[in-house]
Design goal:
The complex is a heterodimer. By secondary structure, chain A is an alpha/beta fold. Chain A has 3 domains: 20-214, NADH-ubiquinone oxidoreductase 51kDa subunit (Rossmann fold); 225-298, Ubiquitin-like (UB roll) (Roll), CATH 3.10.20; 303-379, NADH-ubiquinone oxidoreductase 51kDa subunit, iron-sulphur binding domain (de novo design (two linked rop proteins), Up-down Bundle). In chain A, 45% of the residues lie in helices and 15% in strands. In chain A, strands 6-5-11-8-9 form a 5-stranded mixed β-sheet. A 4-stranded parallel β-sheet of chain A has the order 3-2-1-4, with helices on both faces. A two-stranded antiparallel ribbon of chain A has the order 7-10. In chain A, helix 1 runs parallel beside helix 5 (93-107), helix 2 (32-42) packs antiparallel against helix 3 (54-63) and helix 12 (323-341) packs antiparallel against helix 13. The longest helix of chain A is centred in the C-terminal third of the chain and has 19 residues, at 323-341. Chain B has 2 domains: 4-61; 73-153, Glutaredoxin, CATH 3.40.30.10. In chain B, 49% of the residues lie in helices and 12% in strands. Chain B has helices at residues 4-15, 22-33, 38-48, 52-61, 81-85, 88-99, 141-153, and strands at 73-78, 112-117, 129-131, 134-136. In chain B, strands 2-1-3-4 form a 4-stranded mixed β-sheet, covered by helices on one side. In chain B, strand 3 (129-131) and strand 4 (134-136) form a beta hairpin. The two termini of chain B are 17 Å apart. The chains are: A alpha/beta, B alpha+beta.
Chain lengths: 388, 154
């Protein structure tokens, strides 16, 4: 398999090699089509977790014939185990804003928003000041684009793009049916580019280094690098930017505590990889995709407790709008409790797995659809820990 | 505490007189008086010319938009996996001991409310808690007691 060795890179947080404002000047001189072609050539895929090609998103939004369009930066980072977006906004905000301005130039938007989760409100004053300064710079340059801040109020589901629009529109954060997609009907039903914080910084960096340089990093399916949030049983928790497409094994060699029995890749909504599969799985879109959350568990941890935590999380954060997710999350949680206490036989886990599969196909948004990921991967690999 | 009507009008000036101003308005009221009561929601509905049910529906969806009275300092302890593994139980038990209240309760002097919350994005520095907007990371029993003492004196 085409995989990479662990390689630390420094694009996102690099200050010296990248003056965001110089990049902005350069980008604003390019035509929108050139920008979009560069983005497509770079192979950049969305870094929030879903991995939609960023260039195509911009292209589709540009193609919409509407005088009003929006660029939204999704900073509602809520996936358990993810904390990179806060760090990025804290350390290199100008690169995020620049990415938004480049996107706005490409699609023809005059207004942009950054939607930040409520838990990060301690950043409010600093961030507002930085946004104001950037807006002034844009104004001085004669560029018609303006960024505003919006704040969440503690709902995980609002990280889902259409739920985020609903929240900004003053409604309950319940996801919409798709299609239509945000590129056509986004915020206030206008064509909208919504990108994760990290994706926007990579957009800036692609303009700094050129799409082909970026493309040299990573693999065919997973171009470039990615910021990983490392937590759990590790001696080195924190934020690391790594070249995409590395083996789980190399990751564990670097970050594990020597006793790693499983790695949860992609947060609560991601997959649990047991030790026996460390060797043959790649972290990336050809293997296990991730928004950056990497949680390590050593042999002292009960995988029943881990799964129980995840299911409690989903039960509380489900918006309750669609039945498969609202009822499914509760039943999965009750189900594993019943198996553990002996109220149900171990074979009941198979029924629960089929319920999880039903949720994957019938839930309205990514929240309900992805509960099956941790559920099935933990049940399949650690069945004895769930039962006994 | 600011007059709610004034608060609403101030936000409408910034965010416009339509529903997109709803979240900023509700957030500002909660920030000012730590919760939203029925009268506030009726005021907001009037000002934006939308139904009170819509305002209530939105307010009750979000965990940070409290619709029951809270203390001056709302403490939210993260309970999600990484903080769980790092020892959030001890932190929560310490808080219960020090404040002499249970989860969801407010101290009789209306100073502290104790809540449990989901992931706050500090998984590498658990256990963590928020006191209003301020984050406290890598908590220990001793650290928690010091923090509460500081707030007691505020």
């Amino acid at each position: 398999m085409d995989a990479k060795k662990l390689n630390k890179v420094d694009l996102i947080f690099d200050q010296e090699g990248c003056n965001a404002l110089e990049v902005l000047d350069k980008a604003l001189e390019c035509t929108p089509d050139d920008i979009i072609n560069d983005m497509i050539d770079s192979g950049l895929k969305g870094r929030g977790g879903a991995g939609f090609p960023t260039g195509l998103k911009w292209k589709f939004t540009r193609a919409e014939d509407d005088p009003v369009k929006y660029v939204i930066c999704n900073a509602d980072e809520g996936e358990p185990g993810t904390f990179k977006d806060r760090e990025i906004l804290d350390k290199v905000p100008a690169k995020v804003f620049t990415g938004m301005a480049i996107a706005a130039h490409a699609i023809g938007a005059k207004k942009g928003f950054i939607y930040v989760r409520a838990e990060y409100r301690f950043m409010r004053k600093t961030l507002q000041k930085q946004v104001d300064e950037f807006n002034q710079i844009l104004k001085d340059k004669g560029h018609d684009f303006h960024i505003e801040l919006r704040w969440g109020s503690g709902a995980y589901v609002c990280g889902e793009e259409s739920a985020l629009f609903e929240s900004m529109e003053g409604k309950r954060g319940e996801p919409r049916n798709k299609p239509p997609y945000p590129t056509k009907n986004g915020y206030l039903n206008k064509p909208t580019v919504i990108n994760n914080v990290e994706t926007l910084v990579y957009a800036t960096m692609i303009f700094r280094m050129g799409p082909s340089e970026f493309n040299k990093l990573g693999t065919a399916d997973s171009c470039g690098s990615k910021v990983f949030s490392v937590s759990g049983d590790t001696n080195n928790p924190g934020i690391y930017e790594l070249e995409m497409g590395l083996h789980v094994n190399d990751f564990v060699d670097e970050f594990g505590d020597g006793d790693t029995k499983a790695v949860q890749i992609g947060g609560a909504a991601g997959f649990c990889v047991p030790r026996k599969n460390f060797n043959n799985l790649v972290i990336g879109f050809e293997g296990i995709p991730t928004g950056g959350s990497m949680m390590l568990f050593n042999s002292t941890r009960s995988m029943y407790n881990v799964l129980h935590d995840y299911l409690e999380f989903f039960t509380e954060e489900s918006c309750g709008n669609c039945t498969p997710c609202r009822v499914g999350c509760q039943q999965l949680l009750k189900g594993i409790e019943a198996v553990k206490s002996g109220g149900k036989s171990p074979s009941y886990l198979d029924d629960l797995k089929s319920l999880a599969k039903t949720m994957r196909t019938s839930s309205k948004c990514g929240l309900g659809q992805s509960v099956a990921n941790p559920f099935i991967s933990i049940i399949d690999n650690f069945k004895e820990e769930i039962i006994y | 505490m600011t007059d709610v009507k004034e608060l609403i009008q101030g936000k409408i000036k910034t965010f416009g007189n339509n529903r997109t101003a709803l979240m900023p308005i509700l957030q500002a009221i909660v920030e000012d008086k730590n919760h939203l009561d029925e009268e506030d929601m009726i005021e907001v509905a009037d000002a934006l010319d939308i139904s009170t049910a819509d305002v209530y529906g939105t307010a009750t969806f979000y965990t940070f938009l409290d619709t029951i009275p809270r203390g001056k300092y709302v403490i939210r302890v993260c309970k999600t996996i990484s903080c769980h593994m790092a020892g959030k139980d001890e932190i929560f038990d310490t808080l219960k001991d020090v404040l002499k209240i249970k989860e969801g309760e407010t101290t009789p002097d209306k100073k502290f409310t104790l809540l449990i919350a989901n992931c706050m994005g500090w998984c590498h520095k658990g256990p963590v808690m928020l006191v209003n907007d301020d984050i406290y990371t890598e908590l220990t029993k001793e650290k928690v007691i010091d923090i509460i003492n500081e707030y007691q004196e505020k």
